């Protein structure tokens, strides 16, 4: 097993109900391998990305590529979406739509809700065309949007990470950077390189004295796929030049560097380029275990720089609870992608498509005839209203999973263990060690079993239909084993009568020759499957078995706590934990 990192890198701080004035905290900076504010308090621990506000991406709008070549209208990149709307309603109406969209999709109401939910920062993706025209002239209307975000965050105690998501010419060669020709021309055309350097000089000039801005994220997910090998050296050279340009203007702000291939490859980071910097990585659809983040922990330890998980999400709540709990346990600040999308349950705020939206998206996909211009315009105006936060459908279970805040349902493999979050997925083991002198729990490994399901199915896929075909994970606990789950027990709802209680429900399975047989609901009557010791915040939770489900309750004590589940006798295959 890889040694636990809990001594050197303690977990993130507990969720705070309130936070001090963001401006008074001065500039966010590096302190060894941690990110802190000017007072030395932890910073950039839990955030959300504001995708598709200043750089629209087709999948967030429900646009899908055409089913056959030549059908439909491409609508994946910002340029393509803009062209689609111009085709539908004409240039004047299309321009009016984008003005209204940016005034509605993300507002102070969104920032207030983000802060109220317990996050401490937002990551703001910026398309260079919003703040700079093709000639290199800066656009005051675009910078006004960035400034508005900063002011809203100041008012609600949040920091802002400025993320150049779409650099001039494109840094990825894919739809997510708005590259004009589907190639990373930032690295092949000197003009685009010069524009990028000039843009970061302007950003540094504008925000050099602004402590609400936490960090400069120089390039989002540069050089994926085959481009990585061809231009890795060019990326390093550009990072060095951007660093020098920024530092000539702004000595204070934290600089973030992302690696190659969707910010997953950190091989270019062989030395420290700036003393006040951090390395950002992104992670989707991968096993949420320590082995999967080992390369990032290694670069943190080798260079002595903080690491920051800048994008992850687009998945079910089981995966979110495990993956983001893993980052929290390892002291890695994170940012969830993304706050709001159209008709996509993977975000906290989900936009309900207005009447007529299926005709617009169907036309783009080549399955519908072109809507009449007036009908399309009415749909776009309705969309402007639908994207406002009060009109969205709220998916609180997403945030509950990210923050482990009750009411929440956690997969058994989302345990934090004895402070290190150490676990390995798919029929392997996770070392556990005793961490309380008055509770001599055994330190035998805890086996994570994965059984059943169709072959060659990714149990961590983004597509819920694919996940449904996957097998079942269970923590196999024998006598003396225990697992710990970090929780934040929410305050009782206003007006709730009586003495509030927290109920813990454990769903387990029986091991059979064909694997683990999960039980969806408890049958009638008790049928003990092992003797459990369940404790919440150090207090024993009395309970009983109902078939293969264990349920118990204890008086509620709001705030951060630990749920400990141990087996005193027998064996249990623990599948899921619900805390209400």
TrEMBL record:
Disordered: annotated segments: 492-528
Any Pfam family the entry gives: Cellulase
Keyword Hydrolase set for record: yes
Domain of life: Bacteria
Gene3D superfamilies per UniProt: Glycosidases (3.20.20.80)
Keyword Hydrolase listed: yes
Keyword terms, alphabetized: Glycosidase, Hydrolase
Residues annotated as domain Glycoside hydrolase family: 98-340
PANTHER family: GLUCAN ENDO-1,6-BETA-GLUCOSIDASE B, PUTATIVE-RELATED
Family per similarity comment: Belongs to the glycosyl hydrolase 5 (cellulase A) family.
Protein name: Cellulase family glycosylhydrolase
Gene source species: Occultella gossypii
């Amino acid at each position: 097993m890889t040694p636990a990192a809990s001594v050197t890198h303690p977990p993130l701080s507990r969720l705070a109900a309130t936070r001090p004035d963001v401006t008074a905290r001065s500039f966010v900076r590096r302190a060894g391998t941690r990110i802190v504010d000017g007072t030395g308090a932890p910073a950039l621990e839990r955030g959300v990305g504001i995708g598709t506000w200043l750089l629209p991406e087709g999948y967030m709008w429900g646009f899908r590529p055409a089913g056959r070549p030549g059908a439909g209208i491409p609508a994946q990149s910002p340029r393509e979406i803009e062209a689609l709307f111009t085709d539908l309603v004409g240039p004047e109406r299309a321009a009016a739509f984008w003005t209204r969209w940016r005034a509605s999709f993300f507002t102070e109401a969104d920032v207030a809700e983000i802060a109220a939910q317990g996050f401490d920062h937002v990551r703001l993706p910026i398309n260079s065309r919003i703040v700079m025209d093709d000639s290199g002239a800066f656009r005051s209307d675009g910078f006004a949007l960035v400034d508005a975000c900063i002011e809203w965050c100041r008012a609600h105690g949040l920091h802002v990470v400025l993320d150049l998501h779409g650099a001039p010419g494109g840094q990825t060669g894919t739809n997510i950077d708005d590259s004009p020709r589907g190639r990373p021309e930032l690295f092949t055309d000197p003009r685009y390189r010069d524009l990028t350097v000039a843009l970061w000089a302007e950003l540094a000039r504008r925000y050099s004295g602004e402590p609400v801005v936490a960090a400069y994220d120089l390039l989002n997910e540069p050089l994926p796929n085959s481009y990585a090998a061809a231009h890795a050296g060019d990326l390093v050279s550009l990072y060095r030049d951007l660093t020098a340009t920024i530092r000539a203007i702004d000595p204070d702000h934290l600089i973030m560097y992302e690696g190659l291939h969707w910010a997953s490859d950190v091989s270019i980071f062989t030395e420290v380029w700036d003393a006040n910097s951090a390395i950002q990585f992104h992670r989707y659809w991968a096993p949420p275990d320590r082995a999967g983040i080992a390369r990032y922990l290694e670069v943190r330890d080798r260079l002595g720089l903080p690491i920051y998980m800048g994008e992850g999400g687009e998945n079910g709540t089981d995966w979110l609870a495990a993956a983001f709990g893993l980052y929290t346990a390892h002291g890695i600040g994170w940012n969830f992608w993304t706050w709001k999308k159209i008709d996509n349950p993977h975000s906290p705020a989900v936009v309900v498509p207005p009447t007529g939206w299926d005709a617009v998206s169907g036309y783009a996909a080549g399955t519908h005839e072109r809507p009449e211009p007036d009908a399309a315009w009415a749909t776009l105006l309705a969309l402007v209203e639908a994207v406002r936060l009060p009109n969205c459908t709220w998916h609180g279970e997403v945030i509950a999973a990210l923050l482990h805040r009750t009411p929440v349902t956690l997969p058994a493999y989302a345990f934090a263990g004895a402070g290190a979050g150490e676990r390995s997925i798919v029929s392997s083991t996770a070392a556990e060690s005793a961490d309380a002198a008055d509770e001599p729990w055994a330190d035998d490994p805890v086996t994570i079993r994965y059984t059943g399901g169709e072959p060659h199915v990714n149990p961590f896929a983004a597509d819920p239909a694919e996940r449904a075909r996957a097998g079942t994970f269970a923590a196999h606990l024998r006598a003396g084993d225990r697992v710990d789950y970090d929780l934040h027990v929410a305050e009782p709802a206003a007006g709730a009568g009586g003495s509030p209680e927290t109920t813990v429900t454990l769903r387990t399975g029986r091991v059979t020759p064909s694997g683990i047989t999960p039980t969806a609901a408890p049958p009638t009557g008790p049928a003990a499957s092992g003797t459990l010791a369940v404790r919440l915040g150090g207090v024993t939770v009395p309970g009983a078995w109902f078939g293969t489900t264990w349920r118990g309750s204890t008086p509620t004590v709001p705030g951060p706590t630990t749920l400990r589940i141990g087996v005193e006798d027998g064996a249990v295959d623990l599948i899921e934990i619900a805390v209400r």
